[in-house]
Amino acid sequence: MSMLRDNLKKVILLIWLASVGLALYYYWFQPEYLQEKITLLFGSSLMFGYIIYLLLSSLRGFVLIPVTYFIIAGLLFFDPLPLYILTMVGVLISSTTLYHFSKYLNLDAFFERKYPVQIGRLKHLLEKNELPIVIGWSAFPLFPTD
Fold it and tell me: 42 pLDDT band (50/70/90 cuts)?
């Protein structure tokens, strides 16, 4: 049973990596295709646009796209208040699913096993200066974060 679970985790990780690769391919090499499809999706109906925006903003964490880009794109299609609500719900869903996804794949144990000294130093640094690091990281404009 454990071997089956490990294989399933590897398959899920490979699917995730393939999805990220595919998204990056379309982003870099087929941007006009993406623009056409996004305009078509958001332009069909407002409620459908809300659903698509929420779905994409909920899944964006898996491809490591900052929420800032979704807000800017969303301003082209939606009023600010619904956009704000959809963005906050998307951030909550994205953060929660990403947390549980990485926990399910045991990524924490993998990195602690592979880089024990660096992880230990990083944990000590975070425990010692937790609040200033979180505030500084959140406010630093070159690293958009949820």
Answer: low
